[in-house]
């Protein structure tokens, strides 16, 4: 393959300029070396041998520079499966040398790029972490913050849908090559060149959404790999883009700096409330895919660790939520059904965390106006494995205290609907219940799938998972639990009524709405609950009187309703 010297020369010049002139990038120049690094030497055409350096932090100078690779694995193959199952003993054999030619195309391209940039070492997760060793993977996967923030540059194989596709090939590069038109015979100016205008845009809403149509941007791990890096080379189909903490440039010369830049928000260059930044990160992250469900927290652990280092030491991180903003963080909801990225298991996260969802999530915690938190976190008990506080907890139980009212879930097989019914006369006094549906709201199926519901412009109910009926531990009644194996909502015994709870979490002043959690009793632990969904209701406007009946203001109606609710403590798993 002919090496694209143009892009790599461009990359070298951009990196050199950054290293000399960008103070923000220099400020983060202290290097923390990973456990292992690949020595690539500096002779790209002649040397096929690479060597794995074990315990790099102990045997190499602390100022050693290395590049890091960010890429997509793609569909499973025998070769990939073998690489992902390597143990520490397998990797130790690489310390005596291994062949470049036997590596996947993306790995080979990364070695070539690293050599031409005159960097001696390279970090690739599949070759530097024993992913076949669960304990090592748990320990090392949560250290990505150090790996990517300490890398001299991160190489992003943006255009490669799998590690078997070369990112240096750039099959569409001819589109940006210029053609000489010549010179007007009477003109003394220079030659005139012309090329096709690039169809891609660098003015995406967020960075690294620069290449939002590229395969790498569907990968969950890539978000933190790019945001944590000082310098990033994005290899596209036809050109190379470069970004760092102070600049964003592209070979095509058509880029504009994004107006809303997630990277600047994350690093503090743009001032946003930390809770807003975290919700932006979670929404962007949950759009993406993971090969392994249990990587849900490790793949964002570096971002969480970075934010924790910049905030209050007392702000604990609990399964994707923060204690300083815990009530606000509870206001997540599923943005859409979509297809499950990977099959979920009951152990993939507590029901109250967005980690338990299997699709994109968003937050109803707005940033306009004030809010009143009606629920508070009373207690939290978490037990962590080898991944520590930023990994997936082995168990996580919280105690919430807030006002609640009863609901009832009813399956109606004749009309293919599920109904949420408010108990008794309480329904008539709820200030957010539509008059024509004062007792019952129906969750309609859409093409045999039922999960995201929009009753009207004023009400949304969003169940987190398909449900099935289960018996309470003491055998006294029924409850519901997530049916994680079901692609759609089916009856599964929902022919009888099941009692639920509606817990008021907060009300928002700017948009005037109320947010609730829908809770069900646990079928595995007595006196405990699980979250099964979320409820949102706009509360602005006035309740007009009828035939001389009294008209209550919004504040009066809320006060009357809140007084009718019972404030209790609920233990959630």
Structural notes for this entry:
- Residues 66-225 form the Heterokaryon incompatibility domain.
- This is Heterokaryon incompatibility domain-containing protein.
- With 573 residues, the chain is of the alpha+beta class.
- It has two domains: 5-172 and 191-265, no CATH class; 368-572, no CATH class.
- The protein is 22% helix and 27% strand.
- It has 16 helices and 28 strands.
- The strands form six sheets. Strands 16, 17, 18, 19, 20, 21, 22, 25, 26, 27 and 28 form an eleven-stranded antiparallel β-sheet that branches. The chain has a nine-stranded mixed β-sheet with strand order 4-2-1-5-3-6-9-10-11, with helices on both faces.
- Strand 18 and strand 19 form a beta hairpin.
- It is globular and about 85 Å long.
Gist of the model:
The chain is α+β, with helices and mostly antiparallel strands and 573 residues long.
- Give me the Rg, rounded: 27 Å
Q: What class do helices, strands and sheet pairing give?
A: alpha+beta
Shape: globular
The amount of helix comes to 10-25%
Name its key features:
HET; 2 domains; single chain; 28 strands; 16 helices; alpha+beta; Heterokaryon incompatibility domain-containing protein
Topology, element by element:
Layout: H1 5-21, H2 23-27, E1 36-39, E2 49-54, H3 56-59, E3 66-70, H4 78-84, H5 88-92, E4 98-99, H6 105-116, E5 121-123, H7 125-128, H8 134-141, H9 144-150, E6 153-156, E7 179-182, E8 192-194, H10 220-227, E9 231-235, E10 240-244, E11 248-250, H11 262-267, H12 274-286, H13 301-310, E12 317-318, E13 321-322, H14 326-329, E14 332-334, E15 361-363, E16 371-373, E17 376-384, E18 393-412, E19 417-422, H15 426-429, E20 440-444, E21 452-454, E22 459-463, E23 467-471, E24 478-482, E25 498-508, E26 513-521, E27 529-538, H16 554-564, E28 566-572
Parallel strand pairs: 3-5, 3-6, 6-9
Antiparallel strand pairs: 1-2, 1-5, 2-4, 7-8, 9-10, 10-11, 12-13, 14-15, 16-25, 17-18, 18-19, 18-25, 18-28, 19-20, 21-22, 22-27, 23-24, 25-26, 26-27
């Amino acid at each position: 393959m002919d090496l694209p010297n143009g892009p790599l020369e461009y990359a070298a010049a951009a990196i050199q300029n950054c290293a000399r002139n960008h103070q923000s990038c220099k400020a983060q120049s202290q290097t923390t070396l990973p456990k292992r690094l690949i020595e690539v030497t500096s002779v790209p055409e002649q040397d096929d041998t690479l060597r794995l350096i074990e315990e790099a932090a102990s045997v190499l100078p602390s100022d050693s520079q290395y590049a890091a690779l960010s890429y997509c694995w793609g569909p499973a193959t025998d070769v990939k499966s073998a690489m992902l199952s390597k143990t520490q003993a397998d990797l130790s054999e690489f310390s005596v040398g291994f062949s470049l030619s036997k590596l996947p195309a993306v790995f080979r391209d990364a070695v070539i790029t690293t050599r031409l940039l005159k960097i001696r070492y390279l970090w690739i997760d599949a070759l530097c972490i024993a992913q076949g060793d669960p304990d090592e993977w748990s320990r090392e996967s949560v250290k990505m913050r150090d790996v990517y923030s300490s890398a001299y540059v991160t190489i992003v194989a943006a255009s490669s849908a799998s590690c078997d596709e070369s990112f240096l090939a750039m099959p569409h590069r001819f589109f940006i090559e210029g053609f000489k038109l010549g010179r007007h015979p009477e003109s003394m100016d220079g030659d005139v060149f012309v090329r096709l205008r690039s169809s891609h845009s660098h003015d995406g809403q967020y960075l690294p959404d620069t290449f939002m149509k590229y395969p790498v941007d569907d990968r969950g791990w890539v978000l933190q790999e790019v945001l944590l890096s000082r310098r990033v080379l994005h290899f596209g189909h036809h050109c190379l883009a470069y970004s760092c903490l102070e600049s964003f440039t592209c070979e095509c010369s058509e880029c504009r700096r994004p107006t809303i830049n997630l990277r600047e928000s994350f690093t503090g260059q743009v001032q946003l409330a930390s809770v807003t930044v975290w919700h932006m990160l979670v929404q962007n992250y949950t759009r993406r895919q993971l090969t392994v469900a249990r990587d849900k927290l490790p793949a964002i652990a570096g971002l969480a660790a970075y934010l924790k280092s910049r905030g209050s030491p007392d702000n604990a991180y609990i399964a994707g939520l923060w204690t300083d903003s815990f009530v606000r963080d509870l206001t997540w909801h599923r943005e859409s059904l979509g297809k499950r990225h990977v099959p979920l298991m009951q152990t993939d996260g507590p029901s109250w965390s967005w980690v338990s969802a299997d699709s994109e999530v968003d937050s109803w915690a707005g940033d306009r106006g004030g809010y009143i938190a009606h629920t508070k976190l009373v207690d939290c008990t978490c037990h962590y494995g080898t991944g520590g506080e930023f990994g997936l907890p082995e168990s996580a139980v919280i105690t919430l205290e807030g006002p609640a009212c009863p609901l009832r879930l009813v399956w109606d097989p004749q009309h293919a609907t599920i109904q949420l019914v408010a108990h008794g006369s309480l329904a008539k006094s709820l200030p957010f219940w539509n008059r024509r549906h004062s007792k019952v709201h129906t969750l309609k199926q859409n093409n045999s799938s039922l999960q995201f519901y929009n009753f009207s412009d004023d009400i949304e109910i969003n169940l987190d998972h398909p449900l099935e009926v289960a018996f309470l531990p003491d055998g006294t009644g029924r409850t519901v639990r997530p049916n994680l194996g079901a692609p759609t909502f089916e009856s599964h015994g929902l022919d009888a009524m099941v009692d639920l709870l509606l817990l008021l979490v907060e009300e928002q002043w700017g948009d005037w709405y109320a947010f609730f959690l829908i809770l069900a009793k646990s079928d595995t632990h007595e006196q405990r609950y699980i979250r099964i969904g979320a409820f949102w209701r706009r509360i602005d406007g006035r309740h007009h009187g009828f035939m001389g009946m009294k008209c209550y203001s919004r504040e009066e109606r809320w006060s009357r309703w809140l007084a009718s609710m019972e404030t209790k403590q609920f233990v959630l798993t």
